[in-house]
Write a structure and sequence with these properties.
Isoprenylcysteine carboxylmethyltransferase family protein, 5 helices, single chain, mainly alpha, transferase, 0% strand, methyltransferase, membrane
Length: 156
Amino acid sequence: MSEETVDNPGVIAFPPALFAGTLAIGLLLHFIFPATFLPQWIAIASGVVLLVGAALIAISAFRAMRRAQTAVDPSCPTTAIVSDGAFSFSRNPIYLSLTMLYVGIALLFNAFWALLLLLPLIVVVQNGVIKREEHYLEQKFGDEYLRYKASVRRWV
C-alpha cells in the first residue's frame, strides 16, 4: 500500500469555526454571568470601528487570493504565495480580520468573558493553525516563502 501525501497544512480545525465557537461560548457566559467593562458608547463605537476594519482587511485578502487563483480554505492545496493587498502587511490577514471581527462583536455586547477567551483562542490558532500553515508553505515553496516570511510580519 502506498502512502498518500496530503497537500494541505493539516490545521486542527476550520479557523472560522474556532473563532465562532469560542465567541459563542464567551457570549453565552456573558448572558449567564454578565460582566461589562466599558461604558456602552465606547464599547459600541470601538466595536463598529473594528468590524469595519475587519471587513476591509478580509475583502482585500480574499481579492488577493482570488487574483492569485489559490484556495482560501486551508484544507485545500495552496497554489501560490500571495503577497499583495492585505498580504503585503500581514502574512495572516484573514486571521487578523477574524480576530478583529471577534473583538468587535465582543465589544458590541460589552462581553468581558468573550474577550477573556480571546487569549486562549489566539494560542490555539497560533499553534494549531498558523504554525502548521507556515511549515507547509516552507516545505512547498521553499525560498520563495522564506523571503516573503522574512519581509512581512505574521500578524501586523
